[in-house]
C-alpha cells in the first residue's frame, strides 16, 4: 500500500511533463508552418492556460513611454475586458 502512495505522484509528474512537452511541440510545429506572431501568441496563451489548468491567461507588452501595458493575446476574458 505504501509503494502505491509513492508511485502516484511520480506518475502524475510524468503525465504533466509529457503534456508540457506536447504543448511546446505543438507550438513549434505551428511556428514552422508559418503562423503569424499574433497566431503564435494566441496559441501560447491557450496552451499556457491549459497547462496551468487556469481559465484565464494573457500576454502583455510593457510600454514604458506610456507607462502602461498592452494586451497582445488572451484567453478566458470577453473581448472588452482584455483592455
If you had to describe this structure to a student in words, what would you say it looks like?
The protein is α+β, with helices and mostly antiparallel strands and 83 residues long. The chain has one domain (2-82). 55% of the residues lie in helices and 18% in strands. Strands 1-2 form a two-stranded antiparallel sheet. A hairpin with a 4-residue loop joins strand 1 (57-63) and strand 2. Helix 1 runs antiparallel to helix 2. It is globular. The termini are far apart. The relative contact order is 0.11. The model has no long low-confidence stretch (mean pLDDT 77).
Summary, kept brief:
The protein has helices at 2-32, 37-51, and strands at 57-63, 68-75.
Order of helices and strands: HHEE
Main beta sheet, described?
2 strands, antiparallel
Strand order of the largest sheet: 1-2
Q: DSSP strand (E) fraction? A: 15-25%
Q: Provide the low-confidence segments as ranges.
A: none
Treating each run of at least 4 consecutive H or I residues as one helix, how many helices? 2
Find the count of extended strands (DSSP E, 2+ residues).
2
- Rg on CA atoms, Å: 17 Å
Overall tally of structural domains:
1
Report how far the terminal alpha carbons are from each other.
52 Å
Helix content: 55-70%
User: What is the molecular shape?
Assistant: globular
Kindly report the average pLDDT value.
77
Give me the secondary-structure category: alpha+beta
